[in-house]
C-alpha cells in the first residue's frame, strides 16, 4: 500500500519530462511527507487520479518555495521552471486551502474575502461572555482544522475587543495547524508615538509585543498581514517570532483613479512629509503636491510646500484620518490655490465620535467646502457601517488583497 | 573618597567573633562591587549614617541568597545571627524603599498600603485617552525612579482596563529600575477553566502568558503578587520569566474571627471540595464542614458531605463569589441542619451586575435567610465601593499583606 503512490507519481505524471533528477527528490519528499502527516493517509486510499495529481504538484511548489528562501540550491532554476509549468497546467490545484476565522466586526469583510476564491473556507467562533464580563470563547470542531492553513481576521477597534481576540489568536496556533496567519488590516495606535519624554508609553509598541509573543504553530511562526502601518518605525517593533507582511491600499486607489472621467487631470497631494515619504514611490506617475504645517505666531497653518494645484482635480492621500482636521485644512489651501476638484483617500478611516460628518459632498464647483470623492478601505468595519452609501464616501475593499496575501 | 567607607564598616564590628570578621571582609568586597555598579547610590553614602544602613542591607541580601540556594554554607548560622542582630538594631534602615504606582481603581488601596510604612512612596501616572479611545499614558519624572525598586498595583476588572494597564506594566521595567513587582490582588478568570473540549479557550492562561512576557528589568524578572488564585492549576501557567508569589487572605479572616464575641463557637464550612483543598490546611484549628453539589434527577443541590453545623456559628469560606448562588444554597442547607448563625468569607468579591444585593443582614435569629457577617477583601475595588458601610458586608484590607510582600 505505501509503495504504490510514489510509483504512480513517477511513471504516470513525469515520465515524459527531461529533468529526471528532479523527480527522484520529489518522490523522496513524498515518502517523507506521507510518514509525517497521518491526516493525508485517507485522502490517497481512493485512486482518484486527479486529487493524487494535485498532491504531487503541491509538494513541487513547496520545494520551489524552500529553495527560493534558502538562496543556495543549484537546482533552483529547474524547480522554478517546473513550478511555473505546474501552476499553468493546474491553476486551481495550486491554490493553498485556507480556513478563515473572523470576529463579529469583521464578518462582512471575511465573507467578501471568501467570495474571491474557492480556496478560502469560512469558519465561525462562538463569542460569549461570562457574567463578570470576561470572554467565554469556543472554537467549534477544533480538531477538524488539524493540518490545515488557518487565518484569523482581527479588528482591534478598542481596548476591550483586543482582549477578547487575543485569547483566540494565542489559542489557534496550538491546534496542530499547518500555519497561522493573523490578518489585521488596521494596526491601531494612538496618534503620539514619538516617545519625546522618558515616561511616554507607546501603545503601538505594546501591541507589537503582544503579537510578537503569539505561540509558534507547528508549521512555524505566525504571519501578520497589515495595511499601511502608520509610522514607518513601527515596522521595527516586531520580534523575530512573527513575520510581518506589510501591504498597502494604494493599488486600489490607483485602479480607481484610472476609472475616473478626468483621470488625465489628477494630481496627488500629500498633507505632510510623512505621507509623502510613505507613498510617493507608489504614486510617482501623478503630478505631486506636498503640503506642510508651519507655525506663524501661535497659529499652525497649512501651506503648499511644492507643486501646483491650479486647474487640477486633487486627491489628498494619507494613511489614516482621525478627526479630519488636517485634510480640511489642506482642502482649503488647495482650493485657494486653484484646484477645480478635491477628493481624498485614506486607507484607514477611524473617524472617532462620528467626525466623518464634517465631510460634505461636492456635486460640482465647490472644492473649497466639499469633497468630490472620499475613498476609504474597509479596514475599520465600524466606520464602513456608518458611511455606507453616504456621499462623498466610497469603500474600496481590501478583500482581494487579503485573499492574495493568504496564498503567500 | 572611595577608600573611606569600608574601614569604618570594619572597625564598627571589631567586637564581633572572628567568624564575623571573615563575613565582614566578604561584605566589604560586596560593597565595593555594588558601589561600582550603581552610581545612583553614590550620593547616599556620603553621610555616615546611611552608609551603615547600606551595609546592613547587603548582609540581609546575602543571608536570603544562601537560604534560597540551599547550598551548604558553613557560615550560614553566623549570617543568620548577624542578620537578626542587625535587624533588631536598625529596624527602619532594613526596610527596602519602594516606589508604588497605581491605576485609578486602586488608588484607595495604594494609599492604605503607603500608610503602613514610611518605606513605600506613592507615585501617580497620567491616564489619558486619545479621541479614538486608545490609551494616552505618561509616567511623570520617569528618570527619577532609576535605581529604585518599583511596584505597580493593578486591577484587571474588565478587558478594557487590562489593555490600558498592560502598556504601563511593560514599560516600567525598562526604566533602569532596581526591580519590578506587579501587585495583582485578584487574578481574574472566567469561571470555566477546564478545557473540556478542544477549542475551549482558557482566558486565564492567556492572561498568564501576557504577564509572563513582561520585559525583564535590569534587576531581574518581575515578581507577581496575587492572592488566592482561583484554580490551583493556574500556578503552573506562568513561565520562567516571572516570579509568582501566591499570597492568601485567610490570615486576615483568622485574625478577624478571634475578635468575635463567639469566637469559641465558630465552625468553618467549605462549599465544595475545591475550597476545602485550597484552604483546609490554613483553617485546621476550626471544626470543619464540607458541602458537595450532588445531582438528583435534573436538579443540582447542595448537601452536607461531612461535619455537623448544629448549634454553631458557621463561616462559609471560598476564594471568590460571583452571583452568589452557591453560597446561598449552602446557607439554606446549613441552617436547615441547625446552624445558629451563618457568615461568609471570600477573598474576591466579584459580584457582577450588583448581585451583592442578594445578601441580607441577619441581626439575630434568622440564619436561613440572611448572613451575620460577609467578609471580603479589597481585591476588587469596584465591589468595595458598592458595599462599603452596607451590612452584612465588611472589608478586610489586604494593605498590610501587600506592604509585607513588597519587602521580599
From TrEMBL, chain A:
CDD domains the UniProt entry points to: PRTases_typeI
Catalytic reaction(s) noted: D-ribose 5-phosphate + ATP = 5-phospho-alpha-D-ribose 1-diphosphate + AMP + H(+)
What's an example GO cellular component term for this entry? cytoplasm
The yes or no answer to whether the keyword Magnesium is present is yes
Q: Name one GO molecular function term.
A: kinase activity
Domain named Ribose-phosphate pyrophosphokinase N-terminal is located at 99-213
Q: Where are the transmembrane segments?
A: none
Task: Report the residue ranges that make up the Phosphoribosyltransferase domain in this protein.
Answer: 242-348
Under Pfam families, the record lists:
Pribosyltran (PF00156), Pribosyltran_N (PF13793)
Please provide the record's keywords in A-Z order. Answer: ATP-binding, Kinase, Magnesium, Metal-binding, Nucleotide biosynthesis, Nucleotide-binding, Transferase
**Keyword flag Mitochondrion:** no
Q: Which family does the entry's similarity section mention?
A: Belongs to the ribose-phosphate pyrophosphokinase family.
What protein name does the entry list?
A: ribose-phosphate diphosphokinase
Q: Organism source for this protein? A: Glycine max (Soybean)
Give the gene symbol. Answer: LOC100799836
UniProtKB/TrEMBL annotation, chain B:
Give the GO terms filed under biological process for this record: 5-phosphoribose 1-diphosphate biosynthetic process; purine nucleotide biosynthetic process
Instruction: Tell me which residues make up the Ribose-phosphate pyrophosphokinase N-terminal domain.
Output: 99-213
Q: What are this entry's molecular-function GO terms? A: ATP binding; kinase activity; magnesium ion binding; ribose phosphate diphosphokinase activity
For region Disordered, the annotated ranges are 1-22
Listed Pfam families:
Pribosyltran, Pribosyltran_N
The record's keywords, sorted A to Z, are: ATP-binding, Kinase, Magnesium, Metal-binding, Nucleotide biosynthesis, Nucleotide-binding, Transferase
Domain Phosphoribosyltransferase: start-end pairs: 247-348
Give the E.C. number(s). Answer: 2.7.6.1
Q: Which reaction does it catalyse?
A: D-ribose 5-phosphate + ATP = 5-phospho-alpha-D-ribose 1-diphosphate + AMP + H(+)
InterPro entries, A to Z: Pribosyltran_N (IPR029099), PRTase-like (IPR029057), PRTase_dom (IPR000836), Rib-P_diPkinase (IPR005946)
Annotated Gene Ontology cellular component terms: cytoplasm; ribose phosphate diphosphokinase complex
Family, per entry: Belongs to the ribose-phosphate pyrophosphokinase family.
Protein's recorded name: ribose-phosphate diphosphokinase
